[in-house]
Write a structure and sequence with these properties.
The protein has helices at 2-7, 64-68, 72-94; strands at residues 21-31, 36-47, 52-63, 103-105. It is of the alpha+beta class and 106 residues long. The protein has one domain (2-95). A four-stranded mixed β-sheet has the order 3-2-1-4. The chain starts with a helix and ends with a strand.
Amino acid sequence: MAALLKRNGFDLAAGPADADFAVEGVVTTKPGPPGTKMLEIVWTVRDRQGLGLGTVEQANPVPIALLDGSWGEMASLIAEGATEGVVAILRAQQDGNAAPASPFTD
């Protein structure tokens, strides 16, 4: 997600204390159709005080075998799928700010 935010014109903060916004991803799994698990990811954009400004939700059945090892390419695809929504939330907040947003990804 960090690389995708940079590609969309955001300068990333060095750490949470320097950030205007934070982007947090929470992953959960549930039983899915046979041979799969339902993978759910909720991306939350928060302001400096921790107030939630918006969320992007993803949910898809994923073959169990893909979840057992490194997520590598799958993680990149997941982040790409959420980027448009996360960027839209950040830009909506940024439009009300005089300074460019500096998100921190967790």
